From TrEMBL, chain B:
<feature type="transmembrane region" description="Helical">
    <location>
        <begin position="191"/>
        <end position="211"/>
    </location>
</feature>
<dbReference type="Pfam" id="PF00510">
    <property type="entry name" value="COX3"/>
</dbReference>
<dbReference type="InterPro" id="IPR013833">
    <property type="entry name" value="Cyt_c_oxidase_su3_a-hlx"/>
</dbReference>
<dbReference type="InterPro" id="IPR035973">
    <property type="entry name" value="Cyt_c_oxidase_su3-like_sf"/>
</dbReference>
<dbReference type="InterPro" id="IPR024791">
    <property type="entry name" value="Cyt_c/ubiquinol_Oxase_su3"/>
</dbReference>
<dbReference type="GO" id="GO:0004129">
    <property type="term" value="F:cytochrome-c oxidase activity"/>
</dbReference>
<dbReference type="InterPro" id="IPR000298">
    <property type="entry name" value="Cyt_c_oxidase-like_su3"/>
</dbReference>
<protein>
    <submittedName>
        <fullName>Cytochrome c oxidase subunit 3</fullName>
    </submittedName>
</protein>
<comment type="similarity">
    <text>Belongs to the cytochrome c oxidase subunit 3 family.</text>
</comment>
<feature type="domain" description="Heme-copper oxidase subunit III family profile">
    <location>
        <begin position="45"/>
        <end position="213"/>
    </location>
</feature>
<keyword id="KW-0472">Membrane</keyword>
<feature type="transmembrane region" description="Helical">
    <location>
        <begin position="111"/>
        <end position="128"/>
    </location>
</feature>
<dbReference type="GO" id="GO:0005886">
    <property type="term" value="C:plasma membrane"/>
</dbReference>
<keyword id="KW-0812">Transmembrane</keyword>
<feature type="transmembrane region" description="Helical">
    <location>
        <begin position="79"/>
        <end position="99"/>
    </location>
</feature>
<feature type="transmembrane region" description="Helical">
    <location>
        <begin position="134"/>
        <end position="153"/>
    </location>
</feature>
<keyword id="KW-1003">Cell membrane</keyword>
Amino acid sequence: MSDERNASYPVDGPHAEPAVRDALAATWSDPPGFIGMLCAVNHKTIARRFMVTTFVFFLLAGLFALAMRTQLARPDQRVIGPNLYNELFTMHGTTMMFLFAVPVMQAVAVYLVPLMIGARSIAFARMNAYAYWVFLFGGLLLFASLAVNTAPNAGWFSYVPLAGPDYSPNKGADIWAQMITFTELSGLLEAVVLITTIFKLRAPGMSLNRMPLFVWATLVTQFMVIFAMPSIMLCSTALILDRLVGTHFYNPVKGGDVLLWQHLFWFFGHPEVYLIFIPPLGFISSIIPTFARRPVFGYPAMVLSLIATAFLSFGLWVHHMFATNIPELGKSFFTAASLMIAIPSAIQIFCWIGTLWTGKLNLRVPLLFVLAFFFILVMGGMTGIMVASVPLDLQVHDTYFVIAHLHYVLLGGAVFPLFGAFFYWFPKFAGRMLDERLGKWQFWLFFIAFNVTFFPMHLLGLEGMPRRVWTYPHGLGWDGMNLTATIGAYAIALSVLLFIVNVVKSLRSDERAAADPWGAGTLEWSVPSPPPPHNFDAIPVVHGRDPLWEPPARPAFVAGLAADAREVLVTSVLDAQPDHRPMFPTPSIWPLASAVATTILFIGSIYTPWAIVWASLPVAVAMIGWFWPNRGENRLAVARERRP
Amino acid sequence: MNADTRAPRTRPDDGDAHDLVLDVRALPSFAFGHRSVMWWSTMGLMLIEGTVFAIAVMMVFYLRTRAPTWPMAADPPRLLWGTLNTVVLLVSLWPNQLAKNAAERGDRAKAALWLAVCLVASVAFLIIRGFEFAALNVSWYANAYGSVVWLLLGLHTTHLITDTVDTAVLALLLFTGPFEGKRLVDVSENAIYWYFVVLSWLPIYGVIYWVSRY
């Protein structure tokens, strides 16, 4: 023991002097200056950028929706022409699904998971930065295509043959397919980063059955990403091959099959709904115990429901294809599976009700958003049961009924809890609280406007209004409901504007948030708001599910990690026993350089297949540069090395 | 900060000398197998790529159920080069396992040597792979059968190329340095990924060369 006591470097611990804390903060900070920004790898820096980027995409996609609603406000309008309208609904759906809803959940997880599990960093911090840059460039590609008037216009699921070489001769469908490659590459890498973080970097004592439910939800979601996203990467690659080098995957004349697209797309596309929906279940399971002021009811049932939902979500994809010529037996099977997934969702809802019922409610804005989730999601779930049955689905397929259903599910299931989560964790993100009064205004305006916009769409669908029409004639009985929906859409925009005002106001105020303003029980609330670069001055030792609500126990903290190097504690998968303490990588420009090289490869391949050959060279160079160790870091690592 | 200038009594972490903290200073700085974070990322990539292969194989069988004959308007691929490559790939598992063993023993020189042997094997199967493409008896633009066979072989070839580059860079690093202990973990993970590339070839070999015969 004595030789370690005399180690020549500072180590951390609960009783360390302020100098050690400063050393830790300096070690884990991103470098200053513009170049330093481009080299940043701290998970909080990357996650903040990621969240802001996805939110900007959300706003832009919302503006597209507003443009469409303006066009549909009155019959026979000519504000927007048919081709631009096609581009708008394609861009709206594509952006909301691929550039907002799925990545924003990963972005929030990248910020919160290390704080919730008591870690100083995410695993593979550089890969995390690379995934962000790749995502950003993929999103910019899509918007650049709109700016130069070659935006995709075959809808967000880009069905063949419409998106194939015969019916979409311009570059739009290729750009759509490569945007998929960018975003899914980013999503898959984030999945690996998050799974490894959750399995290996938990604080000692945080066994799997003590993990916060948000961490469980994230873990389950990332496994779903791994099994779902390869399908769409493969199907969009096959599309681009059909279009660029004359393969025939989707060409029936040469033995291909157009339904192959639908199978591959929805094998991803249905789990995607749950990629969007399961992380919010984790938000809700974090918010409800805090505002009911008691631990969550039925923790094991909650965890098993998350896992069951994930499994079942892979058995539903054909219910998007009831209007095709698949066998009747298949349709019956997928109807049954679609109904079955209501069971684990119901179990979770009952557990939340149990928690709320037996708790002492603190009715703040985050909880309001969660309560709205119950109402709206249950509505969406009811119409979901309706469209899961074949005869009804055939009746309302491709009508506004489906539009209403999917917006109830996605906004109720994801956007409402997400706003609740922003209010709840904003002190951790920005060090300040959001204004409660403005928040209530935003909430009620959003809640009412949402129903004003989307409820009439159920009726429009039942009255036969098809989706994706750029205008409609007067006299079909659709005029009033369309006008109502448009008014509602503008009110939603106003409520989102209130949120932006609230954020800007809060960021400009001097009032700082306390470490634990809500009296919550999980580890992220044990550190200051916002957390220092190294998250924890001393890594906590965990003795229960809600560490801040548990009576104190010994040992309370870890000591002995280097303060002058990025040393982290790796623990065992199941029980989180301390195992070893590797050194993590420092900030670097290579992730950005590799992402730029990857972007050249992906965009080049839209224009010439040979780009796959010549542009892979810079990718290889950048990635080898990334891997090759730097001499200074190597010297430090060798000096500190301790063999197993 | 320079801790050496302080008297031992006033070291900043002096307060932690009692048993109320969990002291982790004695822990090793790297570990092999599922203990290391690298193992989990390798597993993650294998799951992703395994899913890609599985879905590509499903595409073959889906298109086959739609087709009146399989292969469509083409002879099945010639067996020679594909079978030869399968043998070479399986044989390469031997130096691969030796590299893994050497790394886990901490023997840098032997690990570098066996990695170099693996590299020779991977150059060999990349050359044979070229002949395999020529022996497919169909082009990717002839029909959907040709498209999907080229896709499957192309996907696996991408893995061969990336694994060759990985192995080359790692072998070079072991020979030239800068070296540190955790590079041995990289060798061990590289070996696991090699197993994946070889073993995933077996079902693909069966689908390309034998499913088109029955």
